[in-house]
Write a structure and sequence with these properties.
The protein has four helices and three strands. By secondary structure, the protein is α+β, with helices and mostly antiparallel strands.
Amino acid sequence: MVEGERLMSPIRRIRRPDRASCHSQRGMTFVGLLCILALVGIIGYAGLRLVPLYLNYMKVARSMDVTAAEFKGENPDLGGIRRSLEKHWQIEDISGVEAKEVEVLKDEGSVSMHVAYDDSVPYISNVSLMVHFDKTVKVQ
């Protein structure tokens, strides 16, 4: 080989990585998997803690809807609506909000019931989860 030829060809051979090293770099590490599982666990635990609050809200909404259906089409009196709400509150065993906290309003020929409340549940240590509920039902 002539010395001039070596200077004229600057092409170098590029090494490709071995197949074994490419194979070992695929996938998720154990630490990454633990981080994902911890995040899913924290979110799942929050969901489990909030389910009873939402079930209680569904009882409140159902009681208000049933009471509105009972007084549909007639001239409802506010005392009758309030007694019906208290009866449904006892039957459904609703906690977190009292039947007295439901506002029964009469305006221009229609009656509406409105309840707004906050409910909270302990989460981890001194951290709590709080949810705001608001429901209005018109008696027609």
